[in-house]
Amino acid sequence: MGAQDAVQQAVRDRELVVEQAHLDRVYHRLEEKIHEAEFLMDDAEKLAKVGTPGALAERDAQVFQASGYLSRLNSEFEDFLFGRIDLLTGKDGKRGPDGAFTATEVADDAIGEDGSTAVIAETLHIGRIGVLDTDYAPLVIDWRAPAAAPFYRSTPKDPGRVVRRRVIRSRGRRVLGVEDDLMRPELSATLDGTELAVVGDGALMASLGRARSHSMRDIVASIQAEQDLVIRAPAPGVTEVGGGPGTGKTAVALHRAAYLLYQDRRRYAGGILVVSPTPLLVSYTEGVLPSLGEEGQVAIRAVGSLVDGAEADTYDEPAVARIKGSSRMLPVLRRAARGALELGEAVPARLRVVAFGARLELEAEELAAIRQTVLGGTAPLNLMRPRARRLLLDALWARSGRGRHLVDAELIAEARAAFDEDVSDEDAFQDFLRAWWPVLTPRAVLAALADERRTGRWARRILGQREVRQLARSLRRLDRSGTGPLSVHDVALLDELHVLLGSPPEPRRPREADPLDQLTGLEEVTTYADRMYERRRDRAERLERERTEYAHVIVDEAQDLTPMQWRMVARRGVGATWTVVGDPAQSSWSDPDEAALARDEALGSRTRRRFELTVNYRNPAEIATLASNVLRLAMPGMAAPRAVRSTGVEPEFRVAGDDLAASVRAAAERLLEQVDGTVGVVVAMARREEARGWLAGLGDRVVALGSLEAKGLEYDATVVVSPAAIADESPAGLRVLYVALTRATQRLTVVACAADQPDAAGVPDLLRE
Ligand SMILES: Nc1ncnc2c1ncn2[C@@H]1O[C@H](COP(=O)(O)OP(=O)(O)OP(=O)(O)O)[C@@H](O)[C@H]1O
């Protein structure tokens, strides 16, 4: 070790000791708080034994608060403290509720007259939740609090009061390392009489170089200034975030959810919905919010799982997806919902009943007229049923002639009520109604579209003959009742049908017992609080299950939502504020204009705020440059984000021989040796099942993905198999290829087939400059 290194090491060790001492104090304080929380729970127990209603209510409130506090503290102990800022004196000397100075501008006298010396006036530590010392001094500031904003916002260009920004790495109770960035390198600042030390080369680079696993990590310790602006953007209206691959759109959207909850917990108790394109991306991102201390109020759902009971991960062929996603499906579904009334097994031609001993009959034309009258209304089909029933009874009553001899209105009403009851009780009437105006389910109507002739009728002048055939064929997976595997695009159709049909009346469920009804004795009283405690745990989960509307909706990869999916998502956020993140250059939807229109309709007249993220944190420059060749073809004129690092490792090109499987397997094996983390093998959708077989036995660090499944994911290394096959698979194929090429954090191997027209170096035609 040279003298310089030894000095560096000594500085590092000294700073670790400083941070360790602070972390020790924080833990000490946390332990005190846990004792307080446990004490509160104990206290609550005692109060319960008293059993008076007042004491009971107080105890419940305490149990609720204490149990929540305990679970937060316990879950957030890991990597609890991660940042620190050293600040100059603020302009006005006022302190906020977290004990920190509020001013963002530097006081006039904070910097010495020579312009190069200063004294650090305030040091703040930033962590996952805020902790106050016994004297209310801030030991840790919650990362979402206003006082923590300079930790993220400060840059050497616009440093504000920050002189040094430090990222602290810790595990459990041990500080493992610190990385500093100087925001005012021109200043020589002192803290408690000693010169401010600087350790390491900055935290961002350290974090970007780490190996990837199959779950996304939070970026709370290294959020960048342009990202922080999005995370803390005001909630109302719509926050739109654009930016190329790897700019942190998904990460930012998730941190924004945590921020919104922190900032207005009451409002967002109404739930935050995060809509993600694939189940793979859901499971990849699922851990981020719990790591930020937020669970329960945020539901992350794949777009194929937004409808209760539907769990779609099957993909339609691009041509079929294009039909099902288009808003042209809307009039087709409207007709199908009405047309499905005729689908009953054997719809009787006439209605025959016996009322008070007399035979009554309604002929086909009368029935058709009644149906037409009812269908003239706008209510959902299933909700029209009572009206249809009433009009049938009206017609039968008229036919019976029973009211003709009566003049007294009361008598007429009485006779009519008796008539209705008599007829309604009759099996013949009930059987007729069931067949003639059946209760329709969305699944059954969707399945009805599998009949090409019928669908041809419903789609006349809307879909072409070929489209009708493709649509009908794709739905043959379903049986008559609609049971069977759904595709992702079927789910939005189901949701639309649900609206068109309305909920069929549900059989009555017994009312859930209210615990207060059971307060009959002391024994019951004591179990009440215990139940409350249990309930609190299940509450969030239950709320989520029951919820169909949310207070905030976050749409990730918004460029991929089809018009029909936009309608489905919009229904879940009618009164919501929105965050919409996406990148048009990565859109797999063939008609961006149609999608933009649907998006405008979904977001309505809400005010919009737009942000653009400009730095690619995922791909090294070598990979980003290659991908930008495809971007130029896919979206001429669109700028690629700036890659923030370079690895010196160029992408590799291989040409597959006769045995594609062997070539891909060999490429994957080599990458597994070269990186510590994950390897993704991206193939055209048509090959995804096959590709899984190619990698059999290589372990769980490597996965095979269809091109559409790669959305939003990242791997240490990727193999992209036959760019031409991916690009040719759909009208949006070039954009899908751009997605595939931008998944790797370290290494990329491209395996070309003959269709790729590789040059002598194996570079496919589509990837050449
Ligand atoms: N400030 C940051 N600090 C550390 N890592 C970051 C930061 N911002 C983004 N990253 C990392 O960069 C990678 C890309 O982020 P993310 O997946 O959110 O990007 P994206 O814009 O959604 O990409 P895509 O459009 O390709 O899906 C992730 O590994 C993320 O953790």
From TrEMBL:
SUPFAM superfamilies for this protein: P-loop containing nucleoside triphosphate hydrolases
Q: Which keywords has UniProt assigned to this entry?
A: ATP-binding, Helicase, Hydrolase, Nucleotide-binding
Q: Where does ATP bind?
A: 243-250
Which ranges carry the UvrD-like helicase ATP-binding domain?
A: 222-620
**Keyword presence, Hydrolase:** yes
Name the Gene3D superfamilies on file: P-loop containing nucleotide triphosphate hydrolases (3.40.50.300)
InterPro entries noted in UniProt: (+)RNA_virus_helicase_core_dom, AAA+_ATPase, DNA_helicase_UvrD/REP, P-loop_NTPase, UvrD-like_ATP-bd
| PROSITE patterns assigned | UVRD_HELICASE_ATP_BIND (PS51198)
Q: Which PANTHER family match?
A: DNA 3'-5' HELICASE, UVRD / RECB / PCRA DNA HELICASE FAMILY MEMBER
- Quote the protein name from its UniProt record: AAA family ATPase
Q: Which species does this protein come from?
A: Streptantibioticus silvisoli
